[in-house]
Design a protein that fits this description.
By secondary structure, the protein is α/β, with parallel strands linked by helices. It is 58% helix and 11% strand. It has 15 helices and eight strands. An eight-stranded mixed sheet has the order 3-2-1-4-7-6-8-5. Helix 8 packs parallel to helix 9, helix 9 packs across helix 11 and helix 9 packs antiparallel against helix 12. The chain is rod-shaped and about 200 Å long. The relative contact order is 0.07.
Amino acid sequence: MPLVSVLMPAYNHEEYVSSAVESVLGQTHKNLELIVIDDASSDGTWAVLQSFQDHRLRRYRHDRNQGAHATLNEAMALAQGEYIAILDSDDRYDPRRLERLLSEVGRASGNDVFIFSDVDFIGPTGGGIADHPRAQGYKTQRKRWETLSPASWFFASNLAMTTSNFFFSRSLANRVGDFSPLRYTHDWDWALRATLQGTIPLWVREDLLAYRVHGANTLSEGDLWRHIHENSYVQARALLSLGKQLGEGSPEGKAHGEDILLALMGNESLHPISLLCYLVYGLAGTENLCLLDCAGGGSTGWRLQRLAEAVACPPGVFRSMAHLAERERAIVVQAAMLDERWQAMEQMRREIAGQKAMVEDRWATIQQMSGEIASRNQWIDDLSTVVKEKEHCISAQGTMLDERWQAMEQMGKEIAQRDAQLETARAEIQKLNRNLFIRAGRYLRRMLAAL
């Protein structure tokens, strides 16, 4: 008889299922059985499963897809071990996982055991992805969970992250019962129900599970209304059950209630309005099966969506508190930004007003300068007229000077001719003066004059 039964629901994980199976069969703890149920995969998952030859492996196959919760319930009914572990067909165990978790069983109070470990995040190829947003978010949430009491851990979130991280005793499974027909939150619902059975979960602070993040992860689906309904159903069911357990007026109940509130307030999957609706339904006597049917959409669609439409309520109010808080922070940031822009606009308005006055002053100056320029232009026009008149006079005087110059040139020529004639006459006179006869005649005249 195996000590541990490992349950593996498999669906369209041809690429990953071999690694998952090998991580179970390769455990350091050998006394185990691996029950794999192929939930009508359409790829080669079943062929991969058939390739393994190990007597500890039990394989089953569905003719039609029944969903993860139904497949898990079927596998749990087939399990023979005293302890039950689960591994999704795209995740991977650390080789020492079962050995380490079994060593922690002695810390449990009573026969009921529920243990989970820290989680490592891997990508499609199996490499670490510590910087992935989901890994970072898990790390941030984990620090907060460390401050909470174990009884309130699963009110803060699904601390185990996935059914792959579940390790529990057969006795606890018998008390808690089957997984609920929920697509996204059947693991969280089961963990909360186990906690409300009085079982204190044990948290092993070692990365003993590799959670694979890839494009086909169920939680990556964007079915918003289903997320809202399922999250609120799980929380409301737990709170209604808790209310019946705590009774009225006990100091322990009040203290535990305070812890639960602190855990819920930090839960990123807390949808306050939709949770209130489920609580009202529950307090009004609506049976759990009806609430569960509502969480699955029922035959008439999403009830809370219809309620929102009936009262013309924006569907955004049903979003998670984390989303609403983020939107509030965005509004505050935008309001601050708008205020800054308004202040800047006011400053610009004042500057524009000052610039307008300056422009008006400059316009008046320009107008004044335009008048002065017009006066100067007129003065220039008048001056141009005077200049033109003077130019005309100068031109006339130039003509007259030219005429006088030409006359002077003519007179100069005539004077030169006369000078030439005089020079010729002088030469002739000098020539005559040198004539012997003329000189003799002059001498005789002087002599006669002397007598």
